[in-house]
Amino acid sequence: MGSVVSATALPAAAASYPTTDFPQITNSTGATDVTVTWYNRSVGVTGAVSDNEDDYLTTVVCVYAYIGPNATEGWHEKECRGVNGGTKGFNFTLDGSDIVGGFQSVQVRLGHQATDVNGDPGRIWDDEIRTRNRPAA
User: How far is CA 113 from CA 52, 55, 61, 64, 126, in A?
Assistant: First the structure.
């Protein structure tokens, strides 16, 4: 009698994408920690932003994705997250699917935003800026 051989298909291993950490960035109103995952063309962004106190200033982190290295050739995608008092986590993707070769650099800007006399958000003031390039393949 012959033996029966069972072949079980194993799931494909998840692709390993390079990541870049932006060590803690601080300003007078708060701080942020950001990690960027470099997908084929897009970038994934995870982290947190914290604010020192609940007052008229909101701590805001904005992440810009650039077509060129060293934050050149203009930013193509941007997302901002803010918090007033406490800490707020975030996780989002900046879509670069239409960029040949994908995003080549990311810039993280930590700033603050004051409310105006009507209680509406005002301009975001950039206090600290950090830029990182896509890791070499």
Answer: 13, 11, 10, 17, 9
